[in-house]
Backbone:
């Protein structure tokens, strides 16, 4: 090669077999529809149990009553969240932050220990997709029938079957959207308004929004959500290590793979235990081949384990060619029976400790939480005025929030300046259950003590039903 050609960059273009190189190449992988095959087995039974359990809780919870109201209701209009006997007010939103922290570190700890088991059994995307697959399998038939139907030209029969399937999917999606809104608007009110479709714009929007995305994600996108759109799938690799429990194919035992007759010793044929039936691929809801190793698309559902174990039983081979194990155990670094002892890893311990601290602090705070709260608002329209007897007076509004499920009575007083006194038309305030009572009060102080400027005072609110429950709220008195 001449010197003039040495510096010219050479671009090597790889052309897939059977493709014309002049057609160019796409930056994106061509989507191929996945037709998961139905499978039976222990892990499938667990998956069905989780699908039914999560949906039973989700659909039934809004119908439960507690003290004459909906047991779980997020009343945004009145800024109150009801969780059975617990009422959460805007001042309690620190507990929401604690809940989010617990969820995050709980997910981190669980992922480090057991991989994507959450995805495989309890994730709403997995649950809804499984239900849509049940509908599809019931209406269109098994995997082969579904593939054959999709390849066939449009006909009256195909239109009827497809219309029935999508009608059932839409109906289920609407039920999920209706139930979702039932957590924010009393669900019995929603049902009462159903014959007239008498819903507000926001209720209508959220029913259709939630239902629409359920239908889109679980009915169409399915595995695309898990592979490309789910953020958890993208950052899970930073939480995995060689001791994380994952679905793995035992390559040392299974290779070389190949077909053979039943009853033949695979070692005599120079083969491993894998008969290359591809059932592990056919049952996978994301369409991957677990024999290629750990992949981002694997959601840990163990459908391939059930399929493979069934084949091993028929062939008379030991189960576990595909199984839950860890990378180190698969390499022989330790027996799989010692998996529990490997939980004492730094990241697992750290995540667990943080989780326990936040949970403990939150529960302790809830247990010590007083059954009422007080907000003090000083009347800024009239900061200070002089009374007929020469004392100085400031006006305030006390908002007493009864966070309990019973009516409460309160006695008001004030302290912080010598001889300071409280003047109000209602010395004893009654607040209904889970309600707010606003009281106007006046604080009077001797001018010789309430000099010009701001002076710290404290309002004392005592529960007459339980004298041990006392709240002090700081405020300021303006003198002149």
Residues:
């Amino acid at each position: 090669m001449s010197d003039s050609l040495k510096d010219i960059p050479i671009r090597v273009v790889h052309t897939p077999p059977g493709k014309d190189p002049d057609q160019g190449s796409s930056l994106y992988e061509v989507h191929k529809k996945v037709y998961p095959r139905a499978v039976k087995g222990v892990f499938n039974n667990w998956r069905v149990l989780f699908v039914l359990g999560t949906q039973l809780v989700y659909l039934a919870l809004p119908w439960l009553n507690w003290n004459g109201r909906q047991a779980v209701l997020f009343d945004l209009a009145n800024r109150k969240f009801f969780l059975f006997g617990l009422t959460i007010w805007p001042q309690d939103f620190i507990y929401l932050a604690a809940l989010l922290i617990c969820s995050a570190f709980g997910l981190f700890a669980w992922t480090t220990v057991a991989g994507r088991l959450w995805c495989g059994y309890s994730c709403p995307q997995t649950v809804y997709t499984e239900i849509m697959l049940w509908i599809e399998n019931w209406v269109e038939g098994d995997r082969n029938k579904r593939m054959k139907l999709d390849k066939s030209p449009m006909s009256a029969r195909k239109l009827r079957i497809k219309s029935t399937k999508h009608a059932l999917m839409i109906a289920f999606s609407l039920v999920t959207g209706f139930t979702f809104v039932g957590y924010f608007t009393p669900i019995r009110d929603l049902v009462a308004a159903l014959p007239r479709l008498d819903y507000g714009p926001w209720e209508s929007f959220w029913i259709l929004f939630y239902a629409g995305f359920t239908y889109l994600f679980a009915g169409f996108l399915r595995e695309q959500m898990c592979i490309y759109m789910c953020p958890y799938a993208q950052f899970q690799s930073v939480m995995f290590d060689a001791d994380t429990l994952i679905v793995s194919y035992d390559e040392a035992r299974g290779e070389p793979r190949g077909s053979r007759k039943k009853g033949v010793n695979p070692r005599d044929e120079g083969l491993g235990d894998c008969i290359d039936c591809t059932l592990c691929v056919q049952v996978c809801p994301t369409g991957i081949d677990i024999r290629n190793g750990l992949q981002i698309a694997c959601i840990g559902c163990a459908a391939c384990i059930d399929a493979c174990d069934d084949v091993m039983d028929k062939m008379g081979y030991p189960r576990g060619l595909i199984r839950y194990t860890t990378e180190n155990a698969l390499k022989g670094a330790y027996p799989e029976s010692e998996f529990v002892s490997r939980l004492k890893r730094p990241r697992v311990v750290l995540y667990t400790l943080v989780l326990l601290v936040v949970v403990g602090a939150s529960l302790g705070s809830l247990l010590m939480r007083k059954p009422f709260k007080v907000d003090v608002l000083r009347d800024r329209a009239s900061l200070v005025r002089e009374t007929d007897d020469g004392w100085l007076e400031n006006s305030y509004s006390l908002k007493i929030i009864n966070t309990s499920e019973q009516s409460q009575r309160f006695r008001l007083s004030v302290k912080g300046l010598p001889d300071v006194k409280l003047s109000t038309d209602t010395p004893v305030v009654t607040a209904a259950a889970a309600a707010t009572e606003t009281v106007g009060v006046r604080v009077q102080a001797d001018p010789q003590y309430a000099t010009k400027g701001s002076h710290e005072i404290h309002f004392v609110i005592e529960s007459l039903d339980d004298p041990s429950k006392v709240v002090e709220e700081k405020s300021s008195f303006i003198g002149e």
Summary: The chain has two domains: 30-369, 372-479. The chain has a mean pLDDT of 89.
